[in-house]
Amino acid sequence: MLKIYNSLSRRKEEFQPLDPPHVGMYVCGPTVYGDAHLGHARAAITFDVLFRYLQHLGYKVRYVRNITDVGHLENDADSGEDKIGKRARLEQLEPMEVVQRYTNSYHHNMEQLNTLPPSIEPHASGHIIEQQIFTEKILENGYAYEVNGSVYFDVEKYNRDHHYGKLSGRRLEDLLANTRELEGQEEKHHPYDFALWKKASPSHIMKWPSKWGEGYPGWHIECSTMSTKYLGEQFDIHGGGMDLLFPHHECEIAQSTAALGKESVKYWMHNNLITINGQKMGKSLGNAISLNEIFSGDHPLLEKAYSPMAIRFFILQAHYRSTLDFSNRAVQAAEKGLERLLDGMATLERIRSGDTSTYDVEALEKRCYEAMDDDLNTPVLIAHLFEGIKHIHLAAAGKESLTAGDLDKLKKLYHTFVHEILGIRQEEKTAKNDLTDRLIELILNIRLEAKKKKDFDTADRIRDMLGELGITVKDVPGGFEWEWK
Ligand code: ZN
Q: How many A from CA of 265 to the centre of ligand 1?
């Protein structure tokens, strides 16, 4: 039985969909004004594994992940410049050119990371009318007010009837003490009220007509609108990064409750954040490494390029609710681990079956499912898979044995958990590198035979020619070692 941690109840709950076998899942997608970074990768991979696992368990999942292309202002505030509008102004582009460029780039990165595309990917800018209607409902129900062409959510009124802060565990009094005074806030009755619709200043590029005048939607309203549009007024799972829990998701709960008279989401799930060398990621710290930079190695903090699968495996080796620190050492360790796992799987293909089994494949399978059912515990799952790899090598060495039936089960198990559920694919590059390695070893074995026949001319010639290709050969007792220079 799958259990998942619900951020709302703050405990693990048995997963019981509202309308099985159907599952509705909404995940907050990127604001497309720049290249995707590690934070995007972690959220996408976390919910990709959930999407994959739910489908593996037989659920029919409708996975909606939005593209935020309007209304997300700088500093996540209610006044200031639109993140996309600003990029468009600086680069002298049409805002939708910025949106298209970074949506394409995001899709490309997500494909590299082998995340499955969502079932529906709605854009905020494509749902302006729906957001206006949603805002009107909140107004009609008395939980919002209009000032000068802007509409704000009345947090205090809402908090009298419901509970604002139930997701984040914050209290309104504390919020008041911590809210910064910002320009334009004098329109609001209280600083913690938030915009549902904002009047556009004359210089604001992205704006639409409305009954309140020309303006644009607030950041939080898009997710309430699009999630309920495609998944119904109540749906199963809403996910996103921990940084979105407050205020974004707290505001979503308030909006849906205010408009629909009920809460929309049954399970709230949040993945934790990634730090870089122990520091929070941020542009001002110079450590906001994009995925493109990681895959090309083109960043001063990187010792080399890392493959998308190494990054995926690195992320999955931590539980999604734990913090994860990115460092060259940590990713290189993950890289080696992944290689060991895939090597083990290649060895598994070469094992010859025996008459008896000395290893309990079914017990391994049970442990793998238990790990996934325990709130998607991928690090424990990976530990079980490594444990199995040990036995694969022992069987390959003739020290253990597996029947033909157990061998088939084991192959299926690794295929299911590694490829289907964890979403690890054999990278073409890795396959090519693997072939190169084997060819080098083939040549060095021929050289070894030449040496045994005292044909030192040939042996030296091979060593020198490999040297010219950038390969260092070292003779050791009974064999050789080699490495790239
Ligand atoms: Zn959202």
A: 13
